[in-house]
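Inputs:
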Amino acid sequence: MKYILILLFIPFLSNAQIKMEKLDLMPWPQNINLKDGTFTITKNFKVNITGNPNPRIFIGATNFLRRLDGRTGLFLEQAFITKNNEFPEAELQINCVRNGKVELNEDENYTLTVSANKIVVNATTDLGALHGLETLLQLLQNTSTSYYFPMVEISDSPRFIWRGLMIDAARHFQPVDVIKRNLDAMAAMKMNVFHWHLADDQGWRVEIKKYPKLTELASDGYYYTQEEIKSVVKYADQRGILVIPEIDVPGHASALLSVFPEIGSKVSNEVTYTVGRRSGIYTPTLDPTNPKTYLLLSEFFDEVCPLFPGKYFHIGGDENQGKEWDANPKIQEFKKKNGFASNHELQTYFTMKLIPMLKKHNKELMGWEEIMTKDMSKDAIIHSWKGVNESVSPGGSLVAAAKNGYKTVLSNGYYIDLMLSIQSHYLNDPIPKNTVLTAEEKARILGGEATMWSELVTPLNIDSRIWPRTAAIAERLWSNENITDLNSLHKRLKTISFRLEELGIMHLRNKEVILRNISNNQDIEALRDFSNVCEPLKNYKRNGGGKKYFMFSPLTLFADACTADAFDAYDFDIAVNNYLGNKNIENQTLVTNYLRKWILMDADLIKLSVNAPLIQPLLPLSKNLKDLSEQLLIGIENKKKVNPDVLNGLLEKFNLRSPADVEVAVYASLKKLFQE
Amino acid sequence: MKYILILLFIPFLSNAQIKMEKLDLMPWPQNINLKDGTFTITKNFKVNITGNPNPRIFIGATNFLRRLDGRTGLFLEQAFITKNNEFPEAELQINCVRNGKVELNEDENYTLTVSANKIVVNATTDLGALHGLETLLQLLQNTSTSYYFPMVEISDSPRFIWRGLMIDAARHFQPVDVIKRNLDAMAAMKMNVFHWHLADDQGWRVEIKKYPKLTELASDGYYYTQEEIKSVVKYADQRGILVIPEIDVPGHASALLSVFPEIGSKVSNEVTYTVGRRSGIYTPTLDPTNPKTYLLLSEFFDEVCPLFPGKYFHIGGDENQGKEWDANPKIQEFKKKNGFASNHELQTYFTMKLIPMLKKHNKELMGWEEIMTKDMSKDAIIHSWKGVNESVSPGGSLVAAAKNGYKTVLSNGYYIDLMLSIQSHYLNDPIPKNTVLTAEEKARILGGEATMWSELVTPLNIDSRIWPRTAAIAERLWSNENITDLNSLHKRLKTISFRLEELGIMHLRNKEVILRNISNNQDIEALRDFSNVCEPLKNYKRNGGGKKYFMFSPLTLFADACTADAFDAYDFDIAVNNYLGNKNIENQTLVTNYLRKWILMDADLIKLSVNAPLIQPLLPLSKNLKDLSEQLLIGIENKKKVNPDVLNGLLEKFNLRSPADVEVAVYASLKKLFQE
């Protein structure tokens, strides 16, 4: 339906352009020339690799075959690709000029040509070729009985060299299989930096062989062995992804200090530190005046750095409010003696001491924007994260860093844990068109990074917080800045979201698991309908103040099944807009079908709740939606105004804070119906 | 509805017995005394542990809290349990007399008492206590607003000491996370032996540090590092599960011989071995006359044995047809020289040479029944697997072994890869009532083991092949031999199946993933309906002769979404039986609702197939079901006989071999309707 409308509204599309609309490519390539004709896939379809690639392309091409086979059910004959030029006559030819290195600034370009009998991927490096294979998989089309690629010429390259995803494995530990499946999804979206947040107040997650107590006492048994980290780094490298570890210091240090209280900043006769069990900002901070602080950190770095071949090491540095420093006379004296005017200057002193420890391992320091003070080394990368929530201009530090001569990466606007709408992330450009920066300054803006802070995510729901939304961020960072059409985004994202399942992403399937749990093994249709119009509370309003949930609590509630960008909310809004534009019977029916569904849904939820305590908190919300739907239905079908007092009263109740920690996401659309 | 019927038919149930019917315990405990009254769970609910347990009970009790919390959403306050007697006043008291050891014959008994304000689990060892916690979780009940345990006294102990599951990680590799989630499910079903099939024709899956080529050349990159194996063994130990490794020799050796062709039995000038890419029995066999064979095996065992603390090592020994031995004059000569009358005797010679290699590591040898020849050591455990498919009496070797003085384990009848009905496994008793064995002989029958051969399973569908069916086998091996009621089994299994999800088992969620893939991202309701009456072909009829599928092919077809014991087939049969017993309108409607559903489903599938090539092969099957449903509907609703020629014709077509490799599982029920 929507597709037809789009065509009607855009009458100047050529035939090729119309076909282009069918392609669910993401991130959208830089240049695409779609042609008439197709390449049909048979079970004899084979791949051949030439040039001087890194062997990762063999694994990538083998995985390509398996994924193509999984979709088509053809039982493709080619087994594991392990060397160059095995099938010179193969239909798909991949040529890489040279071995790619997984690091920033590496050449990731590729060209892809599909003709009737041949497909060619050309790239300088295997990293570019891997991107080309992802594009090719996204091109797959089908008739009712067969699969094909459309004939096309694509040349493609990234806009930014840093297209990252951070996963916080500290607050809620995320096992290796969770990390690996997310690396697969990142690769599918042509992302190239995985930032691994490995230590925070709530846990120390990396094995330090010299100090086994760290994980014995500060991880609850949930940590990565060094072997596991090596396997993740290898897995990432095979997918062209650079891994940046983060050990967050000097704040966010409760877990570390629970094991080494002697390097904490508390005044010594009151020293007790414990692993954080809740959300929120904790005060425990390393003592920058204590030589042992640096000795220990240096020993940790000596073990952690060699696990990560990349050039960058993230030392956090954020949210140190300096409370413990202010309260400690010894530290105050140190500040005075050294002429530090502020805690910021003291923190810079601390951070600068880390630089040689990292240099020893050929690593540059990266940190959250708080590390950017006047004495900070220009080799550091500044990670811009603050914005409206922190009462500063969004990503202001990004511009400041670029002007100050720092390389910088944007995360403000990409905080996917805030549960904001996808469009807020999608339209958040690291270099907006109105930016007043020199070319040199712009070049210092490396790109951006989605941040998956894990206060409210476990292995069960994390995928639905990251995906498919991060695909939109990936497109912002890869594609041309003019690719901003929201209808196109939403349309393509439906396919992308579906396809992420083949990589093991669990966002769709685990939602059903949570709904089954809530339903107490009853039919989940009504719950599914409701979850498709509800969204978890945004901007950290859920679990207000970190009071209710412990970090060890499972997250198996309705809010965990719901996601930002509620599945039906966007479509309902389009239906409402269409109806308000033209009240023909088709448009009316689309709207009233939703209203009827929600009325029935409420009755079903009431029935289910008799044997499902976890449904009880949803009933008031569902009742509000039903009451409003009933009134609007009467109004629409009887073509008459309903009592505005009644409607106003209903609307008022509608989005009162619910104990279910969700909000109904069709409020604005319903209001439009009511107001007209 | 069913529940009411059961009550009507069993009028002598007491009030407590009626409540007992509500309990979905599995395996059913030996003694259970249900009382009036309940224990209500609040967020303050706490656990306390006393006695001298192994620390595994701390992990088990912590996991118990997390699972209880996940179901109830209470945000229980107790964090990680790490020591004895933390909360002496806790509501749940667990007392273990002594440290349990994960080995056969260890005490696994427990008692569980729920009273109004206190719950007590008493056990000799922590292994028994873990079982008690699983029973307690299964007792969880709810009102519409709260959760409780019914007051009860249970004393429980296993009937057999070997309650095993084998997973074949050779034909299709199963990553560590797949293994671990299955260990969790095993523990929930009180199973205590995990048999890990690590090498076969299609792959060598265990790292041998001295010979890295083994996994480099014969695993396609899919193998377990020794670190990973240790982590699995530790994980299993924490759950009271003994791990038995299997390296299958002298047959099933293609992968091994592809790396070490010099120890194969082929005549030397024609030596080539390759890793098997298909199903079926391969001929490559180790050369029992070559000293290097024993040298290498001994070196492998020296690395593998220390990874497994248990007392047993499985050396396979099955399906050596001796073809390569017969064809090799040197081996024939060796046989003659040593006076071996048969290949069996030669194989015994081979197997006996392994015994001291294992003894060196304090391991006893275990093997499939072929190892049982007259000279085999009585210390060996005989694994009975052959039956009707192999043209011998089912599990005959079990009785023979027991009579011959061997300890023995039954797998015939527990081949879950055959996709047979759950009742065939459930009613397969290792010691049937009519067994004529002495008490001493019976005592040699250690128990049984479900075998998940992996020709047709990948990480995507393996859980749905193992679960929930293996729960029925677990009950056979744990519970009293008189617990055989199929209605009760099916009723309880619905809850058990649902609850397995909380342990990470993916049988339900991954089915939806496959259906979404087949549907090409369209609505899957019709596919779901159809999958609920279809079953994969049984007895290895799927992928006939191993011709179509490669071991590297993904398995993402309709047959992979379908399972044995099709979800609606059992319920439909009950509906048909009820209708035939009493043709009142309620009973008729239940039957006709199914028929109508299948008629609509066929129309929906046709619609979906326009954009989903993978649906095409299902349409003939669906049409048959629709045609038959239409005829039966006319007959039932018009109370008239339909033309028997028409019906016969439809029935005849009904179960013709389908290219979709599934069969419609309501054939017998439909035939009943037709015949009456």
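The two ends of chain B are 24 Å apart (CA to CA). Flag for discussion at group meeting.
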